[in-house]
Design a protein that fits this description.
This protein is mostly helical. It has 4 helices and 4 strands; from the N terminus they run ββββαααα. It has 2 domains: about 35 residues, no CATH class; about 150 residues, dinb family like domain (Four Helix Bundle (Hemerythrin (Met), subunit A)). It is globular.
């Protein structure tokens, strides 16, 4: 049976381990955790790898739809394919700005991208901006809070901002995959025996 209690801001979870002879884990110390990042932390390294992998995935799916079908949408209230691409690109840039890095944000707007090539460039530039910002950070600074987090997130570390963007883009990816399938196109990540 688990018992949960809060002591001076620290969550303590002693667990009864009946299957292991009834031993319980020792209660955590009520002292605050050290501020230093453990030397073996790999948060930044993993975020960089995930960010680059997502750029590759999103660039391929954006490119998969023929330009003459870029206005396609599943239902009237939905975004069309172009709007999905530009939504990811602009969301990336706007939310990455709260990391307050030195890298310059790309200057595109949803209206400035007129051709498929323009849209793919905007999307790629949004990911390159994220890469530049991640390269400015350390395993310690990625865990620090941002000064002006968006109200929908509340207090957030720099890592949480990047995780939010990774999740957001995967939501849009799922929608774009449906758009491709409805046009008889297998999404690039699903080619070669995938679903």
């Amino acid at each position: 049976m688990s018992v949960i209690r809060v002591m001076t801001g620290i969550l303590v979870i002693p667990l009864a381990l009946a299957a292991c002879g009834g031993a319980t884990t020792p209660a955590a110390s009520p002292e605050p955790a050290a501020a230093a990042t453990p030397p073996n932390s790999q948060v930044l390294m993993q975020l960089r790898a995930d960010w680059q992998a997502q750029k590759d995935t999103m660039m391929k799916i954006a490119d998969a739809m023929p330009e003459d079908k870029f206005s396609y949408k599943t239902t009237p209230p939905q975004r069309n394919y172009v709007e999905q691409i530009m939504h990811v690109a602009t969301a990336n840039v706007e939310l990455l700005k709260v990391l307050a890095g030195k890298a310059a944000a790309p200057a595109f707007t949803p209206e400035s991208a007129k051709t498929k090539a323009d849209m793919l460039k905007a999307l790629g530039d949004s990911y390159d901006y994220g890469t530049a910002l991640l390269n400015e950070l350390t395993e310690t600074t990625i865990l620090e809070p941002v000064k002006d987090p968006p109200s929908f997130l509340g207090p957030s570390s720099r890592a949480r901002i990047v995780w939010t963007l990774l999740a957001h883009s995967m939501d849009i990816y799922g929608q774009m995959a449906v758009y491709l399938r409805l046009n008889g196109i297998v999404p690039p990540a699903s080619r070669g025996g995938g679903v």
